[in-house]
Amino acid sequence: MNEQQQQLSRAIGFLFDHLRLILFCLLIGMAAGLAWYLQKPKVYQASALLMYQQQQINPSRMSPDVQTRLQEMVNTVGQQVTSLSNLEEIIETNNLYPERRQRQPMVDVVAAMRGNISIQPQRDAAVFRVSFTGSEPRQVMLATNALAAKFVEENIRFREQRVSETLAYIRDELAIAKASLDKQEQGMRDYKLRYYNEMPEQRAANIARLNTLQTQYQNIQNNLQDLKRTQVLIQEQINLRQDILARIAEGQTGGAFPREAPPTELERIRQELQNLQDRYTDNHPDVRRLQNRLSALKAELAAIADPKDETVSDAPSAPLQPAHDTQLAQLELQLKEIEISAARLTREQEAVRQQIDLVQQWVDTTPVREAEWAALTRDYRQLQQHYENLVARSLEAESAELLEQRQRGSQFRIIESAHLPNQPFSPNFRKIMIMAAAAGLGMGLMLSYARDFMDSSFKNVQDLENFLGLSVTCTIPLLPTAREKRWARLGHVFWFIALGTGFALLGGGMVLFWLRGEIIL
């Protein structure tokens, strides 16, 4: 016999030697399991299946379907369903926990009910199960259906509240954004009215205006120079006329004035004019001035030589009065007009100069205004974009609120209501009895092993040879007497009758309790 056969033989022998103890422990364990099952209250469970039906119409960004994921929606609505007010209403409506309500406050009763509620997602992501456990099957069924109905009701209320709060928030933000945008627009209007001529879009017009003013200023300057030259010529003519009249007044005593005037001044002017004509053209101002002066001098000399001239008189006592000379008065009048014109042009020139300075200042400050205006417009564009986004979101929120009010949004739908539970959810009879039988067998084996371990006698030849270190040549079997054999048989019969009776009573009790409905398989 090899070693494995020896070990198997020892195991079988061990079981036969301790069979009564093992069966007794098995009987005790199963009896204890039955007793524990019978004394444990029955707990029933009912379940309802709900499906989250997505919104048929395309949801906007303000819809709760977009803002909240399905699992978050289930968790949020589940918290609302299991709130104190909702569970208290379900407890009172279905008369749950009557004994506990008499001994404990409602808060503790609601906390106990929350522990009996289970919300579990199914394989389909849009389907989940709502379960409730309790001691009364009908109350469990009613409470489960009430919880499922609360899911539908609270989801509708939650969605309406969510979109209403979102719409109110967006409207508040829209009012704030509109006020900021109006303030920014007012600031931009004030800035543009204040610095209109310095704005970048006026730069080209300002430069063109500046060129026009500079041209106008140059024209006025040229006119002033012409007036000054004319003024010098007229002043020379006045001086010459006054000189001639003075000479006439000094040299005339009663006869006619000599018809030929001294040519000294006339020759000098001719000589200067000839010198200038050799170097310049006839349009040169100095040439024109001398020509005018020469013409005036010739005219004066011709007037003096004319006997009809009122400036020559035969009466020595009536000298010529220069103040009454008509030509001199005309020259003085022209000089006065030129002075007035020159003063007017000087004022115009100063005004144009001021306008040039002002326009030049506008052109110089244009880059500064451009940078400031760019900052204002950048802030305005950001505010305008934010305002337009809020307007779009407000329209979407209003649309979402209208859909929720018409109950066109996503909803929880009960696809399977809770049914009356026929079997208790807990305790599980099969599971308890299997565990009790396993515990009894384990206890029997443990006690058998302990009993065998405490027994110091030799059980077989191998143990003796190992202990003595000698080979056993022969063995003598146990030879009991007739009396010992009789008592041994009686002992075996007693144990088997006792164990059989015990197992029979245990099985009969199980059948009896099953017929009475206290055991539910």
Automatic annotation (TrEMBL):
Keywords carried by this UniProt record: Cell membrane, Coiled coil, Membrane, Transmembrane, Transmembrane helix
Segments crossing the lipid bilayer: 21-38, 432-450, 493-515
Main location: membrane
InterPro entries in the record: Bact_polysacc_biosynth/exp, LPS_length_determ_N
Keyword Coiled coil: yes
Domain named Polysaccharide chain length determinant N-terminal: residues: 11-92
Keyword Protease: no
Membrane topology: Multi-pass membrane protein
GO cellular component: plasma membrane
GO MF terms held by the record: protein tyrosine kinase activity
Entry-linked PANTHER family: FERRIC ENTEROBACTIN TRANSPORT PROTEIN FEPE, TYROSINE-PROTEIN KINASE
Entry protein name: Lipopolysaccharide biosynthesis protein
Organism: Desulfurivibrio alkaliphilus (strain DSM 19089 / UNIQEM U267 / AHT2)
